[in-house]
Amino acid sequence: MDKAKGKGKSTTMSGAEAHIARENARNAPGGLSANGTQLSIWERPGDPPSYVHGMFCLTRDDHLEQQALPSFPSGSSGMVKLPSSVAESATDHLRELGLVGEKVKAALEVVAPRLLQEAEDRGSSVSGRAAAERCLEWICSTTAESALPGKLHEPREVTAGRKLQEDRNVACQTKSLLLGGQIDPIDITRIEKLGFSRARAIQALAEAANNELLPAVKSLLSEYLPLELPPDVDPRTVIPANPQELWDEVEAMQSIYGEEEVQSFGQGVDGMELMAVLPASGIGGGGGRWTLAFLIPPGLPYPLVSPLLCPRHERLREANRPRLMEALGDVCRHTIGSPMFFILCEWLQENGHRFLVRTATTSEESGDIKQKQLLSRQRDLAAWGAADQTQLEAEKAKQSAAEGAKRIEVLRGKMLEEGAVKPKDKIAAEIRGQPETTQFDLSGYDDQQVQLLVKEAFGMPLDCKAMIRITFVVGGGKALRSKYSESLAKTLGSALQELGFLQDSAASCDLASAGCFKGQHDTQRNQKLVHVFPKVSGESSEQPGARPSSLVVFRLTFLLF
């Protein structure tokens, strides 16, 4: 790699001559460059490099093993700071790479506690170079490549050459191993589903006993997740998980996160494979979606099921994945002694952004954090008082239903006064004329048209005995984005709520979900959808949005027992 790229140097020499000149400068006494100035810390030879961000070679000043950064509450990370001289030196080093401003300040606040603790343990002090290197590692791991300065971008020809060589190495190794009958190609694919590269999958299988899948996966993840029973648990008091129990837990997840977001690949001889896709709202710039790939080995004690998993996120880079895995393992170990599905999913949704991005939050973001903390406390109360929580949710749903019923009665009277005229909107007319499960594209609709559509289509219960699902396409990817109004989904949801509809992510096509709606992102078609479950003349007596109490107790049973 050309480490001098982007350092402000210009020359008319050929590529070979420039390379020779750089090497001579590096080998000169004192490490001086060709013009007599001291070499930057990013170009200084002699120290072993560490591979960071997949493209940039660093030299570690402390030569210590990388450890997980501590997660501090908002506002407390500034209590421990680096000395001003060290911070200024690190800032100067980072300025050479084009990193300035609040990003550098936030990085210094994040790495300061760990660096100071390491220095105290060694009986030494923190250098500006060590602080700069640790800050660069954190910035590269939490920033999209397109947002990094040009000096941290790998040249295209280097990227292409390295990728070609990696493909050749993997292809050669794969061919030699597979031809020898040592490794099953299906096992390689399974490990790749967990987020590991093909080369690492082959290496792990080659080193595993009898080239079996489960030992290979354990060797890759065992240092991050507890895979055995806690020391104080007697193995004779637990029973292995059977396929039906695992299926029950999968169905419980589907009832909460949605059937389309939780997909199981079935129970095989090596365990159950499961993929769960969750939204990651990400305060401070997280965003995107979490994809969790589970591999549950057979025979593990239930309900202390220890899944082997690897979370993937568009902002989670290879340098941060081991740290997040370790943090997940600690959270689950301290909570129930072993990881479980719900604990992992809820932890990611609530704390993923805190691990990836630690910056000062605005007042609006602080309000969002408080709201999330409140939701977390409510879930804790639900885990220890299922009956009370269920009753509370039923009372809230009853109140919402009463308010919605009043709105519907008022709207019904207005429609009767207007003479129950035929809907003006074509989609509304089709929904009321032939109520059935179908999908409509709202491209070209503005806010007023959407409000009219909702009022005419769902103002009165539909004349059908069974529940139907009306799906609206309200957005899409870059190729489709221009066809839809940016406020289309928000306007549609507000119009439905004015009619007494409730937003319920667990709603499904049954009468218990009458009067509910939910959003979805169809990743295969790259479309944003809104599913509406209207009130129908044959709906049950349950209140809109109310879920059967057996579902709540069922979910909590897996969390507590």
UniProtKB/TrEMBL annotation:
PROSITE patterns listed in its UniProt record: RWD, UBA
SUPFAM superfamilies: UBC-like
One Pfam family from the record: RWD
Regions that span the bilayer: none
Ranges of residues in domain UBA: 182-223
Domain RWD: start-end pairs: 248-355
Gene3D superfamilies, per database record: Ubiquitin Conjugating Enzyme
Name the UniProt record assigns to this protein: UBA domain-containing protein
